[in-house]
Design a protein that fits this description.
Blueprint: H1 3-6, E1 10-11, E2 17-18, H2 20-29, H3 41-53, H4 64-80, H5 108-121, E3 129-133, E4 136-137, E5 142-143, H6 146-157, E6 164-169, H7 175-185, E7 192-196, H8 204-210, H9 213-220, H10 236-247, E8 251-258, H11 268-280, E9 284-291, H12 297-302, H13 304-315, E10 319-322, H14 331-344, E11 348-351, H15 353-365, E12 372-374, E13 383-388, E14 402-410, H16 416-420, E15 426-433, E16 435-437, H17 442-448, E17 451-455, E18 462-466, E19 473-476, H18 491-500, H19 504-511, E20 514-516, E21 522-525, E22 531-534
Parallel strand pairs: 3-6, 6-7, 8-9, 8-10, 10-11, 11-19, 12-13
Antiparallel strand pairs: 1-2, 4-5, 13-16, 14-15, 14-17, 17-18, 18-19, 20-21, 21-22
């Protein structure tokens, strides 16, 4: 999936490559979804075709209605019963996001399926929230309701009647606008929820609470207890975090060196992980976008202004992050960024390709292997320090990478990475890659001073690299950003921000003797290295504040 078209590709524990929206759901709800939680037209049609080939339709004509629409409903009901919060119980309520715009041809089978579904399960088992934009004409400054009126009319014409309107706007909705919407859209005023622009996204749950959106949903689904007032949502942690984020003043500048810098959604989870760590360490995140191509020598000749701007941003940053990516465009610029961070003792975090870039740069600059490269960029290289994985496919691109949650075993107990993970003996993180560090060259690298502190369970696949003599120079083959949460920042991102803001030693001291299991909870580590019982005193994913403030784990 092209980042220019889809934004980032979010990876789930089971290896599912899905839309970035599922990442938002995992972060906000702190749940673990599966590939089945991502319904696509292709999956539905493939399932129906497979059933027809097996003879399950007994030779009948296969049509959009009822076969495709039935398959959509069956998929929803099946997936809704899968536990996602770490328990064995099914959820009480399943949220279905139907993307696109009313009237799109692509979504018509799904709209028809949901229309049938709402009729079949009945009004008390189905709540439709319609999201619509209320724009403002700059000339007159009036909030216009016509787009919402027309979209609701279109929705009704397709057999779906909205119970709640979620109205996006730049400013809070005026009262007369709500009255007008209620009149023309046949939705009660208490069920018209306004989601206006806020200073940070963590204010959104608070907006919903203040407008009693939970009461509207409980009423539509008939989940209210008779004679009892609905309890207020427990959002004290959200309130504190949203307020804290707004008040942060001391900046920490991170140079993001990549080739999709023109579209921030391409690195959405990376940005969120940086934000989680920055807020936890009381720093205001400032991301310096550095197009990797602009760091290269060819840019200095073609567009010198862009070249100077890129290097100025890189040199002015407190830390450098090279995220994942594919293809050879901009690779030389990333190598130069890694070299600058290594030689200047600037904190560096390389993710996936960013780790491979660091290995290539080390081979060229420190080991004097001028032709060192990845076979992804130069298949004929005589010094292949990064190679194609043996189990991969070079002919089929889709879902043939090393995907999903894999275990990394720490080889060096006192390395920075292990300390950041609370001295755990292993960690489970999500992967998405086709290439790996050449295991035949590992011994040479380690002799030259590059430490491979994390490996897979076979011991042959390199997962984490470190430069022991550097302030903070870490590369990870996995993607730690996918499991970062607002209340539980990714340890490696926490380390990068701490190093960039001069707090790393204090952070490592605070984490000493604590371990983190794969779900992000703090655990007690025993002498044999096994992770056992949870430590007492954990409050909302945090230890109570001591010293210079709370350090979320």
């Amino acid at each position: 999936m092209s980042p220019f078209e889809h934004g980032e590709v979010f990876v789930l524990d089971d290896g599912g490559e899905v839309d970035l929206d599922l990442g938002n759901y995992e972060r906000f709800l702190d749940i673990k979804l599966t590939r089945d939680n991502n319904i696509t037209t292709g999956k539905i049609y493939q399932s129906v075709i497979d059933k027809e080939r097996r003879g399950e339709y007994l030779g009948k004509t296969v049509q959009v209605v009822p076969h495709i629409t039935d398959e959509i409903q069956e998929w929803i009901e099946r997936v809704a019963m899968n536990p996602v919060d770490g328990t064995e119980e099914a959820a009480d309520v399943c949220v279905i996001e139907l993307g696109g715009t009313i009237g799109d041809i692509e979504s018509m089978p799904f709209i028809e399926a949901l229309g049938q579904f709402s009729y079949r399960v009945g009004p008390r088992n189905f709540c439709l929230v319609h999201v619509s934009l209320v724009p403002v004409l700059n000339v007159v400054g009036e909030q216009k309701t016509k787009p919402t009126q027309h979209s609701v009319r279109g929705l009704r014409g397709l057999g779906l009647i909205p119970d709640i309107l979620a109205c996006r706007s730049t400013q809070p909705l005026e009262e007369q606008v709500k009255v007008k919407l209620a009149q023309f859209c046949h939705v009660p005023i208490p069920n018209i929820i306004n989601l206006h622009d806020v200073t940070n996204i963590w204010h959104i749950p608070l907006l919903l609470r203040d407008q009693k959106a939970h009461e509207a949903i409980l009423k539509v689904l008939d989940l209210q207890c008779v004679g009892k007032v609905p309890r207020e949502p427990k959002l004290s942690e959200w309130t504190d975090r949203a307020s804290k984020c707004d008040k942060l003043k001391t900046p920490v500048r991170i140079a993001m060196v990549g080739k999709y810098t023109g579209l921030s959604d391409s690195y959405l989870s990376v940005l969120k992980a940086l934000l989680h760590a920055s807020v936890a360490l009381n720093r205001k995140l400032v991301v310096e976008w550095v197009p990797s191509c602009d760091l290269e020598g060819s840019t200095a000749q073609e567009t010198p202004d862009a070249y100077e701007k890129a290097w100025k941003s890189l040199r002015g940053a407190d830390g450098v992050l090279v995220p994942g990516g594919f293809g050879d465009r901009g690779v030389q610029g990333k190598i130069l960024a890694a070299k600058y961070a290594r030689e200047s003792n600037v904190p560096y975090l390389g993710i996936c390709l960013g780790m491979q870039i660091a290995v290539i740069e080390f081979a060229r600059s420190v080991m004097k292997l001028d032709g060192a490269n990845s076979t992804e960029f130069d298949p004929a290289t005589k010094t292949p320090c990064v190679i194609f994985m043996p189990e991969g496919s070079k002919t089929h691109m889709g879902a043939t990478m090393r995907l999903g949650s894999r275990r990394t075993l720490f080889q060096v107990k006192n390395c920075k990475s292990a300390k950041l993970y609370g001295n755990a003996s292993y960690v489970d993180e999500r992967h998405r890659h086709r290439y790996e560090v050449n295991p035949d060259m590992v011994q040479e690298f380690e002799k030259a001073g590059l430490s491979f502190v994390g490996r897979d369970e076979s011991g042959k696949r390199m997962e984490i690299i470190e430069l022991p003599t550097h302030r903070f120079f870490i590369g990870a083959q996995f993607h730690p950003e996918f499991k970062s949460r607002p209340g539980n920042p990714s340890p490696l991102f926490l380390g990068l921000i701490a190093a960039a803001s001069g707090q790393l030693d204090h952070l490592l001291q605070r984490l000493k003797g604590r371990g983190i299991c794969s779900n992000g909870h703090v655990m007690k580590v025993y002498k044999n290295g096994h992770v056992m019982k949870p430590l007492k005193g954990l409050v909302n994913g945090h230890y109570p504040a001591t010293g210079n403030g709370p350090i979320p784990i």
